[in-house]
Amino acid sequence: MVDIYAFIAMNEAEKACAVGDGTYLGGRFENNTIIQLYGVGDFYVEVFFDPLINKITRFRPFKTVTLLEPYLKNINII
Prior knowledge:
Elements: H1 4-9, H2 12-20, E1 23-30, E2 33-40, E3 43-50, E4 55-62, H3 69-72
């Protein structure tokens, strides 16, 4: 399993493969961008996708729980 530092050092294609091996956790839409959250090993990765150009524009790996907040509002607990 890849760690966050190895992930940061990867090229874009390698990052896409690593995310593909991860677990999809949720998604959101912000500023005309689709942002999908994945669990990869012991960290999270946000994948930013621009549907206008049909391309991933950014990967943001992180460990901090604070960055999970935008996804928590989409969880219904009943």
